[in-house]
């Protein structure tokens, strides 16, 4: 009897030990998943030693200051990405704009939203942000609305491209939706702005897929860089051909994100199935529709649907021709490329592209943050993020710094910039 009592006495102690072990395991998983032990640091900047870059680093303090994400969850690239993707921005504003419709040569109708500035620009100049959102995005997305509202208050006019087919209430007028590197609609919007506002200067901004489009647009033709003060690209992957293999890997849950983005692309395409698959001029067939239903990755959709809009014979050719990596060296305006080291969508191997470019070209600056996820870059004390992100503020601060440089630089500085570019 005494031995049984002793055995019963050890039971609570054993359960307490199991509870402690369970709690310790959960805490360990939380610390690992939330990356709580990761340090905070300023962005790692790659640049050449030029007067402009010195002026940028001196005047654009966000590029040299420590980026501090929210304490409890901000060091997780997955949570930063999810918060951007699903929850949007905190208390997202509703800027008032006017929608413009532009007929394209192939019968498509490009649309963009135009937002006038709400204050005078610091330099007193007329400056327009021409903005290209991420994949399947448009002017009504939370992160775009927040950025536009902030830019308007800093004296910028904003023109935001709505990717062809992305707006649910706008019908297509030709059998084609936006693709990874098609610059036609963005070019039409830029052309409209240049004609409507002959005195304005342009700041080109691209988010994710939009970063690929704007960099490719500028590099396709030197005339596209006329009246452009600078370009900022955030969280793009630079080369779809090199990225496709990484998108099928499970590390950083990249394969899962691929599935989610493919599912979103399916919805966009199927919402326009009548005109995409029903018109006599359409390049799509019933077999393509059946393949679309069974697709589980962006690559399958790109191979069966997207490449055919522009007549590419293979997905390799499509990715090769549509990626900005082959055009970046032609961009001569000041170019800021921003990525996050914990972006679950952009593999680390792709970041050698902007790093190498910034080492070779004096007009390019590459900023790599430790944290931020994919288009996250939230800031905040502990739990709740601030409405404006580091990304929102750094784009505007960089653009404003470039505006001041252009307004106040001496002829000698202009000649030095030209000689550096030619070299």
UniProtKB/TrEMBL annotation:
Which organism is the protein's source?
Scleropages formosus
Subcellular location(s): the record lists: Cell membrane
Task: Share an example GO biological-process annotation for this protein.
Answer: medium-chain fatty acid catabolic process
Q: What is its EC number?
A: 3.1.1.23, 3.1.1.6, 3.1.1.79
Principal cellular location given in the protein's record: membrane
- Family assignment? Belongs to the AB hydrolase superfamily. AB hydrolase 4 family.
Q: Please describe what this protein does.
A: Progesterone-dependent acylglycerol lipase that catalyzes hydrolysis of endocannabinoid arachidonoylglycerol (AG) from cell membrane. Acts as a progesterone receptor: progesterone-binding activates the acylglycerol lipase activity, mediating degradation of 1-arachidonoylglycerol (1AG) and 2-arachidonoylglycerol (2AG) to glycerol and arachidonic acid (AA). Also displays an ester hydrolase activity against acetyl ester, butanoate ester and hexadecanoate ester.
The protein in question is named Monoacylglycerol lipase ABHD2
Q: Which GO terms describe its cellular component?
A: sperm flagellum; sperm plasma membrane
The topology of this chain with respect to the membrane is: Single-pass type II membrane protein
Broadest EC class assigned to this enzyme: hydrolase
Q: What is this organism's lineage?
A: Eukaryota, Metazoa, Chordata, Craniata, Vertebrata
- The gene for this chain is ABHD2
- Alphabetic keyword roster: Cell membrane, Glycoprotein, Hydrolase, Lipid degradation, Lipid metabolism, Membrane, Serine esterase, Signal-anchor, Transmembrane, Transmembrane helix
Q: Which reaction does it catalyse?
A: a triacylglycerol + H2O = a diacylglycerol + a fatty acid + H(+); Hydrolyzes glycerol monoesters of long-chain fatty acids; hexadecanoate ester + H2O = an aliphatic alcohol + hexadecanoate + H(+); a butanoate ester + H2O = an aliphatic alcohol + butanoate + H(+)
Tell me which residues this entry annotates as catalytic: 208 (charge relay system), 343 (charge relay system), 374 (charge relay system)
- Domain AB hydrolase-1 residues, every copy: 128-381
């Amino acid at each position: 009897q005494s031995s049984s009592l002793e055995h019963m006495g050890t039971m609570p102690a054993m359960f307490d030990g199991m509870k402690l072990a369970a709690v310790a395991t959960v805490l360990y998983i939380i610390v690992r998943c939330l990356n709580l032990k990761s340090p905070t640091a300023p962005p790692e900047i790659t640049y050449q030693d030029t007067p402009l870059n010195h002026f940028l680093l001196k005047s654009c303090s966000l590029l040299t200051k420590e980026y501090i994400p929210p304490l409890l969850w901000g060091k997780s690239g997955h949570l930063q990405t999810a918060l951007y993707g699903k929850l949007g921005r905190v208390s997202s504003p509703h800027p008032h704009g006017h929608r413009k419709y532009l007929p394209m040569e192939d019968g498509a109708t490009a649309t963009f939203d135009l937002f006038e500035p709400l204050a005078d620009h610091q330099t007193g100049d007329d400056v327009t942000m021409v903005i290209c959102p991420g994949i399947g995005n448009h002017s009504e997305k939370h992160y775009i609305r927040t950025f536009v509202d902030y830019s308007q208050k800093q004296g910028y006019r904003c023109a935001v491209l709505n990717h062809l087919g992305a707006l649910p209430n706008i019908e297509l007028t030709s059998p084609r939706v936006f693709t990874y590197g098609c610059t036609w609609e963005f070019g039409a919007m830029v052309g409209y702005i240049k004609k409507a506002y002959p005195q304005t200067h342009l700041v080109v901004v691209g988010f994710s897929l939009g970063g690929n489009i704007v960099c490719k647009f500028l590099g396709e033709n030197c005339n596209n860089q006329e009246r452009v003060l600078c370009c900022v690209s955030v969280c793009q992957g630079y080369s779809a051909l090199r990225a496709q293999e990484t998108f099928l890997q499970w590390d950083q849950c990249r394969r899962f994100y691929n599935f989610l983005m493919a599912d979103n692309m399916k919805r966009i395409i199927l919402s326009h199935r009548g005109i995409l698959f029903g018109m006599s001029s359409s390049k799509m067939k019933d077999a393509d529709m059946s393949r679309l239903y069974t697709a589980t990755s962006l690559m399958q959709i790109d191979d069966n649907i997207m490449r055919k809009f522009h007549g590419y014979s293979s997905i390799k050719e499509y990715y090769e021709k549509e990626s900005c990596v082959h055009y970046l060296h032609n961009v001569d305006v000041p170019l800021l490329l921003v990525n996050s080291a914990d972006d679950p969508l952009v593999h680390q191997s792709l970041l050698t592209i902007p790093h190498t470019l910034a080492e070779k070209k004096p007009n390019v600056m590459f900023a790599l943050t430790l944290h931020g996820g994919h288009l996250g870059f939230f800031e905040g004390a502990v739990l709740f993020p601030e409405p404006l992100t580091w990304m929102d503020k750094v784009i505007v601060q960089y653009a404003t710094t470039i505006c001041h440089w252009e307004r106040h630089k001496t002829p000698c500085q202009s000649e030095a910039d030209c000689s550096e570019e030619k070299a």
